[in-house]
Design brief:
elongated; 71% helix; 0% strand; mainly alpha; MetI-like fold
């Protein structure tokens, strides 16, 4: 009796889908991502800003807090490539050091919010019942407030400061990750691979850790990328209001705030920090949009 050889493609037809190895899936996703020139440009821009901020002590032309009263509000020149502010401090140096503050704030806040929100949301969606009802109710109340207003509310309790701003923005974003992770977990808990794991005796927490959470990460990564730019924008807004990083710490929002009264006399002092915010937020949005398309299983 002859045995019939079954190809992977035929096996895929029998199961309703074609199995793709994790390595092949990553290569395919990266190839799809590289086809998006705007996303690649955005990723390159983020890398440049991150590298410049990391190497600020080396590449900055001056001490960001060095006051030079003879160079107050000077325009771009050989001595100050992007000009100086109202205290004669080098704008380029302060932008580089401010990038360390703003980028680190966005990264830490979104990473913390994503981790907390994903775990809480996955638990709520997977177990359901009373736990889900309580978490969903609290999440709906929090999301009813715009993120910026919720951050202001938290800061009104904690007081101004960089660390307090990080907590405030993080609290504002945790509910968004909870909702996303909960929705993903609700869709996963009745799928065949979860039911199969339960049928062979796997406990709920093992299924949650080994099967549900890994499959929730895709949408969470996309959301985290998109919200990183938004977090930087909110942090800059808080800095503009004097509620974020306090002087003499260089931060893009506070730089714009300090220079706003000199817009006619020295527009460069606020224009360049504002441009840095725009470029970083735009780059993160481009990368986030591309990741959303790349990780969409329905895309080719």
């Amino acid at each position: 009796m002859k045995t019939r050889q079954v190809s992977p493609e035929m096996a895929g037809e029998n199961t309703g889908r074609l199995e793709i190895s994790p390595v092949a899936g990553r290569k395919r996703a990266w190839k799809r991502f590289r086809r998006n020139n705007l996303a690649v440009g955005g990723l390159a821009a983020i890398a440049v800003f991150a590298l410049a901020a990391t190497l600020a002590p080396v590449v900055a032309p001056a001490d960001p807090n060095e006051i030079d009263l003879e160079a107050v509000l000077e325009g771009p020149s050989g001595k100050h490539l992007l000009g100086s502010d109202d205290l004669g401090r080098d704008v380029l140096s302060r932008i580089l050091y401010g990038g360390r503050t703003s980028l680190a704030l966005g990264l830490v806040v979104v990473t913390t919010a994503a981790t907390t929100g994903t775990v809480v949301g996955a638990v709520a969606g997977f177990f359901g019942a009373r736990t889900d009802a309580i978490i969903t109710a609290l999440t709906d109340i929090a999301i009813a407030f715009p993120a910026f207003l919720l951050a202001l509310l938290v800061l009104s309790i904690l007081g101004p400061g960089l660390f307090q701003a990080m907590i405030a923005v993080g609290v504002a974003y945790v509910p968004r990750f909870i909702r996303l992770a909960r929705a993903s977990a609700l869709g996963l808990r009745e799928l065949e691979f979860v039911l199969s794991a339960r049928a062979v005796g796997a406990g709920d927490w093992r299924i949650l850790r080994a099967h549900v959470l890994p499959n929730v990460l895709g949408p969470v990564v996309v959301q985290a990328t998109l919200l990183s730019g938004s977090a930087i924008l909110i942090a800059a807004s808080l800095g503009f209001l004097g509620l974020g990083a306090q002087p003499p710490v260089a931060e893009w929002g506070s730089m714009i705030s300090d220079a706003r009264q000199y817009l006619r006399q020295a527009p460069h002092a606020s224009a360049f920090p504002g441009l840095a915010i725009v470029l970083v937020v735009l780059a993160m949005n481009l990368v986030g949009d591309a990741l959303r398309d790349t990780l969409d299983v329905r895309s080719g």
